[in-house]
Amino acid sequence: MRKPVLLSFLLLIGLFFNALANDGYKLWLDYQPIQDPELKTQVKNLLDGVFFYGENDTYQVIKKELELASENMLDQSPIYSQERLGNSKLWIGTRDQLSQVLSLTQQGEIRELGADGYWRGPLVFEGKTYYAIIGNNPVGTLYGVFNWLNSIQTKTFNSSSIISDSPKVKVRMLNHWDNLDRTVERGYAGASIWDWHRLPGYVDPRYIDYARANASLGINAVSLTNVNANALILTTDFMKKVKVLADLFRPYGIKVFLTARFSAPIQIGGLKTADPLDPEVIKFWKEKTVEMYSFIPDFGGFLVKANSEGQPGPHEYGRNHAEGANMLADALAPHGGLLIWRAFVYSHEVDEDRHKQANLEFEPLDGKFRDNVIIQVKNGAIDFQPREPFHPLFGAVNHTQLGMEFQITQEYLGQATQLVFLAPMWEEVLKSKTFQPSQSSTVASVVETPINENHKTLIAGVSNIGTDRNWTGHLFGQANWYAFGKLAWDPELDSKAITDEWIKLTFGNSSELASKIETMMLESHEAAVDYMTPLGLHHIMGRSHHYGPGPWVTGGRADWTSLYYHRADSLGIGFDRTSSGSDALAQYAPEIAQEWSDPNQIPEKFLLWFHHLPWDFKLKNGMTLWDGIANHYDLGVKKAREMQQTWASLKGEIDPERFHHVEQLLAIQVEEAEWWRNACLLYFQSINHLPFPDNIEKPEGDLEYYKSLRFPNAPGI
Ligand code: BDP
């Protein structure tokens, strides 16, 4: 071949592969060309006559999104109508702006949806039918537009039906555990996306895509910095940087929060104390807050981790959590800010059971917090373990606003090498019955209900986002970000519905492909629990980096070891939290405590969480406890292999780049599942000296080898 011919040939091949390549950057906003002719005509018709009822920054954002979507889906730009009547077909605006064309009943129905709610559907005016997307505020309108675009991508759009929705939770928030040097605590997807060093001058275009993705899910708040906080974020220099982000995020309806280090008055204020009742300290925080609002008039507020894992707090000064939180809340209140105080507390003096600590510290303070304080509680009482019963605080206080904290980043659930879809786990927690404050209460209802009209409700998720091209390290980590956003909007949602939607948005509308991927996703959490911590085992991972198994971890602080949690000895295994043990069970409602205190009645998934039992205890299926444990570990490995096979069967149906990415990671996941099974079973056998049941694949390898493994460079520490 002659050189120029060869060159163009290579160029063509390059273009072809480029077209096939999909690095996952676009997330669920991929806006693939519409194939269905009828749908295409409908959408084209609407986008050929878009009319906005007014102008504001959020409508600019909507226009950009419509342009992007239209160019990708239809290969054309939307056509804007300058006049409402004439050629317009798609009307976009707020209820107020459209009041003249809405009937009183329609106005009432839309008003009822509340602040961020939206309505979309056909609207007949002067004999002609338009399609309208209406919010109660511009951000509600933006949510309506995203919902409409979502319906087009998932082929569920029907121009004659009315869809309306509104969030059940007020503050839907991501918590970044990002440090100012761009490392991310428990981050497995590269560095922090916040480029503090180059801000405020350099604005990474990625910030906008981040805001779009969040707004498309209804996420309306982000805390930018690690809960293990650095006081420097509260200095003037950093406020200028934060302001840039807040200004960018505002049109997307996203408010910025920061973590406040309780000792900041000492570190950056030159004071000798951070005592929350000291007048100088009170003054410091008031002035800091005023300064913050001078840069960011709608600043969300502070998130605080205090007196936990060595973080400073009010206890140093003989004050309690309410005194600490209220002092900060008072500084924020005149500006409308929120103070989010975490219930993940445990002190240096190790309690007989860490499980009980939050209730011990917060129950006596019930009703003592200001109206603008929310206590943010992790889903379970220990620490984001592969499976935990819901945190007992959710059923224990009636006069304190509690918010939910989930962990999206997979610190204990396979980090960024494993496909573990977390929605089923979150759903399990949210749907748990608390029996308090009423017999029908669930964790979801507690989280959704403001204790009075002055309170805001909250769901927060610890972000899994980083600078990796696909944002989350593992492609399927995107599904966890997506599912979190959906559940924060509506904690009653079913994880299957969320899964279906995400798959269609990510991989297209083929139903065979969808059903295979859906099975993998929906079974992945149970599989991980099986090969990591079945039957209520918990906290048996590697020390500090938390990567891989470490049931042998001992030495140092007792409640950071594995032995403290599994308590295995020659006679049995498990943590007795009944009245004969730590009695943590008594922190739950009597209905629960009673059922769970009986090892034959408690759901087996929580068995060893609450009971220390002999190795030959009989499980419901007739197996001994030891055989049951061994079978769960083995089953987990088999399920991981099944996931790998299912994925392999999709070869050719998914673009090569994403296919290969997941294929490689699933191979790692299978190895890691085997590693967990082998290490845990060999370790427990070294204690009970019982034979492995015949029906399982025998754990391979040598316990001493597994114990010797070190991961000094594991990410996220
Ligand atoms: C633990 C993490 C630690 C966090 C802590 C927290 O290992 O890095 O700082 O949670 O939530 O799970 O504060």
UniProtKB/TrEMBL annotation:
* Family stated for the protein in its record: Belongs to the glycosyl hydrolase 67 family.
Q: Which reaction does it catalyse?
A: Hydrolysis of (1->2)-alpha-D-(4-O-methyl)glucuronosyl links in the main chain of hardwood xylans
Ranges where the Glycosyl hydrolase family 67 catalytic domain occurs: 153-471
Which residue intervals define the domain Alpha glucuronidase N-terminal in the entry? Answer: 27-148
Q: What is this protein called?
A: Xylan alpha-1,2-glucuronidase
Enzyme Commission identifier(s): 3.2.1.131
> What Pfam families has UniProt attached to this entry?
Glyco_hydro_67C, Glyco_hydro_67M, Glyco_hydro_67N
